[in-house]
Design a protein that fits this description.
Helices cover about 35% and strands about 25% of the residues. With about 450 residues, it is an alpha/beta fold. This is Phenylacetate--CoA ligase family protein.
């Protein structure tokens, strides 16, 4: 007999949290109404928490004491949110070189949760989050996931890389009674596994679908091509990758519900989430978010490297951390949903997704997806790789309608998008696999750009 989401939410989940001694449900109640506070109140709260975090980092971590001393700035010198820019940026290389010195000496190691990034842009990063921060982030993420129509205890069709739901009996029990994920491994998304997953979802009827943007799109396209129907979730949460407009349109058409776009990373968890009105709000419950280009804040409507300060992780503070993505802050100052948190117009993808042209132009991978690959109907799959300023490699999986005209279209588009000074080669491949994280990268540039 299947347990209802309401029973799990009101009985099993509170008992489980009590047994584990986790406070996230209490945090969740405290978050009611937090997103509708006046922005000035939100920013005052951020500043107060920032000052406390900076003092802690200076007193308890060798790395940040060196950082402050090297700039002749003391925590007491930070009196406004703008003053945060007096501090240097934190990079992935900094973390790899100074990881142990970033860990707070006053927090026992048994209170730290070890994490590791997927390494989708190079070498992975190992980090720690203190347990109190982890529980706060857990509650915050649930509060935003409710925007998609989901709540604790309800079934989730999880199209995710390397699902861990059934690794042992404890994990299986936890998933059955608590997280309730119905997993599809994105590293095994062949026709047979997707058909089997479709049959499973027909029986178990998830309330929402959750997964990588591109993986959700592939599954939706498979169902549409095979004329399979009957999966009607209340909502869909897309995360971990840029969600392209054509992917959103396909997903929403196939499943008959809206997609909630969510953005985050392993290091700091949720960064931004799309509200029911379609605006991408920054997570002010946990972070301070900046948009930087050439070391300076960008104006609304301009792309900038995303820089975050985690206000909750005292175990291993992340202060002015360059996530590695580019986003565009919005000029909008209000939203019909009532959330007062600042809005990001769009996520432009990884810093390394930008192609640099000899003419000094910077073209985002998301732009190329929609203004290059989408104009090539004979191409089933494509990846652009740049290792030299004037040379690109187009890795192509041929579709059924691929022809000499397709090659001519590629040449024409390459000239229009990249200019006459850029050479290119075409490399035909049988498939372009997702990375070990389950993510698929359409564009990879190994050159420096203003967001690097």
């Amino acid at each position: 007999m299947s347990l209802s989401g309401s029973f799990i939410r009101t009985v099993i989940v509170p008992l489980w949290a009590m047994k584990e001694g986790t406070p996230y449900l209490r945090h969740l109640k405290g978050l009611d109404g937090s997103k509708k506070r006046p922005l000035a109140q939100v920013q005052a709260d951020q500043l107060q928490r920032l000052k406390k975090l900076l003092g802690h980092a200076y007193d308890n971590t060798p790395f940040y004491r060196r950082q402050f001393d090297s700039t002749a700035v003391k925590p007491s010198d930070i009196s406004t949110l703008d003053d945060l820019r007096k501090l240097p940026l934190l990079t992935k290389d900094d973390i790899r070189a100074n990881g142990d010195d970033m860990i707070a000496r006053n927090i026992p190691r048994d209170q730290l949760v070890a994490k590791k990034t997927s390494g989708s842009t190079g070498v992975s990063v190992e980090l720690f989050v203190d347990e109190a921060s982890a529980q706060w982030k857990r509650a915050v993420t649930v509060s935003y996931d409710r925007w998609a129509g989901w709540d604790i205890g309800e079934r989730v069709g999880a199209i995710w890389g390397n699902p861990e739901c059934y690794q042992n009996w404890r994990a299986h029990l936890r998933n059955s009674l608590l997280t309730r994920h119905i997993p599809l491994d994105t590293l095994k998304m062949g026709p047979d596994t997707m058909r089997a997953y479709y049959d499973t979802l027909l029986k178990k009827k998830p309330v929402i679908l959750f997964g990588h943007a591109h993986s959700l799109y592939l599954f939706a396209r498979f169902l549409e091509e095979k004329e399979l129907s009957g999966i009607h979730p209340r909502g869909i949460i897309s995360t971990c990758m840029v969600l392209h407009d054509f992917e959103r349109q396909t997903i929403e058409r196939v499943f008959g519900c809206r997609v909630t776009n969510r953005y985050g990373c392993e290091e700091v968890s949720l960064i931004a989430c799309e509200c029911p009105e379609g605006n991408f709000h920054l997570n002010c419950d946990t972070l301070i978010v900046e948009f930087i280009r050439d070391g300076k804040p960008v104006a609304p409507g301009e792309p900038g490297a995303i820089v975050v300060t985690d206000l909750t992780n005292y175990g291993m503070p992340f202060i002015r951390y360059k996530v590695g993505d580019v986003g565009i802050p919005s000029a909008k100052t209000s939203c019909p949903c009532g959330c007062t948190y600042p809005i990001m117009d769009s996520l432009e993808g990884r810093v390394a997704d930008y192609v640099v042209t000899p003419d000094g132009n910077y073209i985002s991978g998301i732009s190329l997806t929609e203004n290059f690959a989408m104009h090539l109907p004979g191409v089933k799959q494509m990846q652009i790789v740049q290792e030299e300023l004037d040379h690109l490699t187009f890795r192509i999986v041929k579709g059924e309608s691929f022809s000499e005209q397709t090659v001519a279209d590629i040449k024409r588009l390459a000239y229009e998008r990249f200019g006459a000074r850029v050479r290119f080669d075409i490399e035909y491949v049988d498939s372009i696999q997702s990375e070990s994280s389950g993510k698929y990268r359409f564009c990879i540039s190994k050159l420096q750009n203003p967001f690097s």
